[in-house]
Write a structure and sequence with these properties.
Blueprint: H1 8-11, H2 16-31, E1 36-43, E2 82-88, E3 112-114, E4 120-127, E5 149-151, E6 154-159, E7 162-167, E8 170-173, E9 178-183, E10 193-198, E11 201-217, H3 218-221, E12 230-241, E13 247-251, H4 270-273, E14 277-282, E15 286-302, E16 305-315, E17 330-334, E18 352-363, E19 370-378, H5 379-386, E20 389-390, H6 404-415, H7 421-429, H8 431-434, H9 438-441, H10 447-453, H11 461-466, H12 514-520, H13 527-535, H14 549-563, H15 568-585, E21 608-612, E22 618-620, H16 627-641, H17 645-650, H18 665-682, H19 685-694, H20 703-736, H21 748-755, H22 766-774
Parallel strand pairs: 2-4, 5-13, 12-16
Antiparallel strand pairs: 1-2, 3-4, 6-7, 6-10, 8-9, 8-20, 9-12, 10-11, 11-12, 14-15, 14-17, 15-16, 16-19, 17-18, 18-19, 21-22
Length: 779
């Protein structure tokens, strides 16, 4: 690099302020040159083949002209010096300037800029050819999730007969409301309805907020960096979300979101930012890989004012650039390892920090062609200017109803409450097959991750596996990572579903509820009696909605009794899965006709539902609509992450379950009904709904925190009841079946084969359950 100033050491002392000052002074001069398309500041980019400064140059007679320098492969090396970067449309060798037919000599870009006080600023020239828009292609779009929304998903808005598309970037909050951040052009005017895309199609998610940014004077955002007559382009808008429970803070396909990488005018760490790898998920392109190549790129001049962006990002490692529809995506900075090297681990294991918001690839004003690089704005600036904070702990471990965190919590805690020493040692030896440790649960649970790992811990197999459709799905290696053992017969419909609940809080046989009637007279625990109970409902109750939760516990008890002395694999698998159903019984909403609100009552604060009428118009929400997942998943997950949940449960436990054992399946069903009655007494469903409605009032804390504040103590009490009952049923089945000693650790593959077998403790409806209990289908 001897062609650059020989005094490279003096360049290393240049500050970001020096670069900005020089670029401001020379910008109009540089932009007047026909070949120049933009300017920026950064560190000198070295061609892969270039030698380090000071290396003895070869014989001049054999020296060849340097080829173009490109953003895609030119590198920042440890000796790269601060500079002004000038992007040109075409690389023109210096000797060609002034030749006949070539550009005029004064069109050449100088290699150095001189400030009035004698400071010298080097110039790095980079070729940035425009490409036709059709040539800019991204990776194949991802397969969007089926239920939850999050970063990376497509955002749509219809304005003046046109549909605009962008990407949901991340979640932010102003302390009360939750917002999805995206590109402003995908928001429209305040109050505009916004949709997003999931695998099931386009669904409304909320309305555009008045919190939007288009531009700010550069001097207002960076007062210590002087740029005259310059706007900092931002182009960010917020969507006020109608149902926060349907959102996760994480970006689809990336690891759990971390706190943002904060940059501000006194803290622009050039060497920690420039040429560092970044990743994003765009709605149009899927996973994007890039490298930050420069700062404060000038991309437009209008009316005597320049427009600049915080970051210039080039595609990395053979990847394509962003394209239309990726605007709004959040770029995450990959943090280096402790030795300063780049992380070569799988993407899911890397330390990624949110850094910037994508605008899309730059469009050249003269030809409307696109570049292959992106402009992006600092997420720190966005949060500061909109007075919001990045959300990093919202529904991190999103899963199904009565979330995986709840089921695995009860499964883990119950092991410690078992009385029989041999059984307890057996369960402890296989604890990782049954559940997930409490410390790990604080980080959330991802159903997709568990499925792809090849093994789902047993306590949530009924939700993650059995309530799904069997669905083969090959990964990039050709491995089938789809759902094996699913028992659904169509979407959200199948024989497994009635086993998780029972709408038991209507009067029966002279008692105020079905559980109280059965506790008074256990002979009522028959299929025929329960059919009569459901037949008496004023509305028609289909077979799938005739919940049989206590019968499911009866069925598992009988199989565990059969397996206790002779089949440790089968006993362990049944015991682990039983944790799920006892967990369901310990949640008040699983035993109520008001499982997801009260349909004939209006909410405290009127709002819209996701349900639509025949004309496609969204219906008004009823009182408590949405409470099921808000309480049993979102609140529980939040409480686990913040370490509220486990101390609340522990405060209601002793050394063991402290309950008398039962000897038969009917008694286990009766114990389940007693559990359902107890939890409904401690925490009535209507009280849960009331607390949820209160959380919509102005000034309330966010839903999950408001629910925990109102219901946290009682939630700890009812989950402790569930863990105690589960431990008691385990002890009882082991004793009734003649189990003895500790059969030792079991093989994970053998356990998986059992839960993937649809005939293992077969799922049936009310009309068939007694027959299945007495004469089980063979494996």
């Amino acid at each position: 690099m001897s062609q650059v100033s020989s005094d490279t050491a003096s360049f290393s002392t240049l500050s970001l302020s020096d670069l900005v000052e020089a670029r401001d002074l020379y910008h109009f001069h540089l932009m007047s040159k026909k070949n120049v398309v933009g300017t920026a500041v950064g560190l000198y980019l070295i061609r892969p083949e270039d030698e380090a400064p000071g290396h003895a140059p070869p014989d001049k007679s054999t020296t060849k002209a340097k080829g173009p320098r490109h953003l895609r492969d030119a590198q920042v090396r440890e000796y790269s010096w601060p500079c002004v970067i000038v992007l040109v449309r075409d690389w023109i060798p210096l000797p060609d300037f002034g030749k006949e037919g070539g550009p005029s000599p004064w069109e050449a870009v100088p290699k150095q800029l001189y400030l009035p006080d004698g400071r010298v600023i080097p110039v790095c020239i980079v070729e940035a050819k425009p490409v036709a828009q059709g040539q800019v292609a991204g990776t194949l779009p991802v397969v969007w999730p089926n239920s939850m929304f999050g970063g990376g998903l497509p955002i749509y808005v219809d304005v003046q007969g046109e549909t605009h598309r962008a990407t949901a970037g991340c979640l932010v909050t102003d302390g009360h409301s939750l917002y999805a951040l995206t590109a402003r052009h995908a928001c429209g005017e305040e109050g505009t309805e916004i949709d997003a895309i999931q695998r099931r199609g386009r669904r409304r998610i909320g309305v555009s907020s008045g919190k939007q940014l288009t531009r700010k004077l550069f001097s207002e955002v960076y007062p210590a960096l002087e740029l005259r007559q310059t706007w900092l382009g931002i182009d960010v808008g917020l969507i006020r979300l109608e149902d926060a429970r349907r959102w996760t803070a994480n970006t689809y396909g990336l690891p759990s979101i971390k706190p943002l990488f904060d940059v501000y005018e006194q803290n622009f760490p050039l060497r920690r930012l420039l040429d560092r790898p970044v990743v994003a998920v765009g709605a149009a392109s899927g996973l994007l890989h890039g490298r930050i190549k420069a700062l404060f790129y000038r991309y437009r001049s209008v009316g005597g004012f320049d427009y600049v962006s915080d970051f210039l990002i080039a595609p990395a490692d053979g990847h394509e650039g962003a394209r239309s529809g990726d605007s709004g995506a959040v770029w995450h900075l990959q943090m280096p390892l402790s030795d300063g090297k780049e992380d070569s681990r799988a993407l899911a294991e890397r330390d990624l920090r949110p850094l910037a918001v994508e605008w899309g690839s730059q469009v050249f004003s003269e030809t409307k062609e696109r570049s292959t690089y992106s402009v992006a704005t600092s997420l720190s600036n966005v949060c500061k200017l909109l007075d919001v904070e990045l959300v990093v702990d919202h529904n991190e471990g999103v899963s199904g109803t009565w979330g995986a965190v709840g089921h695995y919590s009860i499964g883990t805690i119950a092991i410690s409450l078992v009385k029989d020493a041999g059984l307890k040692a057996f369960l402890e030896a296989n604890a990782e097959l049954i559940s997930i440790p409490l410390d790990d649960l604080k980080n959330g649970v991802r159903n997709k991750t568990l499925l792809e790992s090849g093994f789902v811990p047993l306590a949530d197999v009924p939700d993650i596996v059995w309530k799904q459709l069997p669905s083969p799905h090959l990964n990039s290696k050709g491995d089938d990572i789809g759902v094996k053992g699913g028992r659904d017969t169509s979407y959200n419909t199948g024989p497994e579903h009635p086993n998780h609940h029972c709408d038991a809080d209507r009067p029966f046989d002279g008692s105020p509820t079905l559980p109280k009637a059965c506790i008074a007279d256990e002979t009522l625990i028959t299929a025929a009696t329960w059919e009569a109970y459901f037949d008496a409902f004023p509305e028609t109750v289909t077979e799938m909605h005739r919940g049989i939760l206590p019968f499911r516990v009866w069925q598992f008890f009988e199989r565990m009794k059969d397996y206790a002395s002779a089949s440790p694999d089968e006993f362990l698998t049944a015991a682990g899965i039983l944790a799920h159903y006892v967990g369901d019984a310990s949640q008040p909403l699983h035993g109520s006709i008001h499982a997801d609100g009260i349909e004939d009552e209006e909410p405290d604060i009127p709002r819209k539902s996701d349900r639509k009428d025949r004309n496609g118009n969204r219906k008004d929400a009823y009182r408590g609509e949405g409470i099921h997942s808000a309480y049993e998943t979102a609140m529980i997950d939040m409480a686990a992450r913040r370490n509220f949940l486990f101390p609340a449960i522990a405060g209601n436990l002793d050394a063991d379950h402290g309950m008398a054992l039962v000897g038969a399946g009917r008694e286990a069903a009766l114990a389940t009904l007693k559990l359902m009655d107890a939890v409904a007494t401690v925490l009535p469903p209507r009280r849960i709904i009331d607390a949820y409605e209160d959380s919509f009032h102005p000034g309330s804390a966010p839903h999950s925190q408001a629910l925990w504040d109102a219901l946290g103590d009682e939630t700890g009490e009812i989950m402790a009841l569930g863990a105690r009952t589960l431990a008691m049923v385990w002890d009882s089945a082991w004793a009734a079946g003649g189990g003895a000693g500790n059969p030792g650790s079991r093989d994970k593959d053998d356990i998986r084969k059992l839960y993937q077998n649809p005939n293992f403790v077969r799922s049936v409806s009310l009309s068939k359950v007694e027959h299945e209990i007495a004469s089980p289908t063979p494996l």
